[in-house]
Amino acid sequence: MGHVLLFRSRNTNEKGESKVRSESRLESLRRCEMRQVVVVMLAIVALGATSARPQGKSDTAALRSPSSQEPTAEYSGMQPGDTVPRDLREKRNAQHQASGRAPISELPEGVEELPVINHWWLEVPAIPAAQSALIVIASVADSRAFLSADHTSVYSEFTLSVERTVRNCARSAEFSRGDRITAERAGGAVRFPSGRVQSYRIANQGFPKNNRRYVVFLKANEEGQDFIIITAYELRNGRVKPLDGESQLQFSKYSGTLEEDFLSEVERAAALPCEAS
Length: 277
Description:
The N and C termini lie far apart (127 Å). The longest helix is centred in the first third of the chain and has 50 residues, at 2-51. The chain has helices at 2-51, 86-95, 259-270, and strands spanning 72-74, 134-147, 154-168, 180-186, 188-191, 197-200, 213-221, 226-236, 239-242. The protein is globular. It is of the alpha+beta class.
């Protein structure tokens, strides 16, 4: 009788110990799961805090498209290093006023300015020699952007270092190797006091890059005493790349063309008498 009772008592103790061990394991699992949940929640909070971080001057690079190459104007109007006489700068700024358009202002976070679509390319042939007062092979020595007098638009100026003149119907001057020409194009970028940079472009128009070599087709801007870029082609590694239109416009027919072959075509087109331009 005693042996039976002893056996039952030992069996009961084993069951109790097993239950305690099971409950302990369950508690450990619950604690482990809770730690994992906490880690995930902390990671989510940290990610949210990073994405919501205010974007100041240190984040300027992240505020503009990686492909953006526009010269940048300061919204304050201060353009350090501008060597153009003040009266001439005022004339150029006045030329770019956009009547009826609201002044440029900083857009809400996440909102970008859309390119202006004006179908400018419809009347421009792939090699616009007849429309050009001046055609030069030149490198871009400098580029800057400026706001119009009423802050309704931005325009960019490029200092071209002449390598060779292909056509000159400007009659204002002769250009030799090493001479500098100022050429402008509508559009550019604006940096606001917050550090945000907004781009303003005309659809299918690019901007020449500093230290790159181009064939540039120009029309005269007599009032501004400079030239306006009609279009251009970059000359690089013996090949041609259109500045404008990417792959869908008439300029793309010369993409990848040998530099020598392209220049021959430009020279034949440029032989047209100036009276016909």
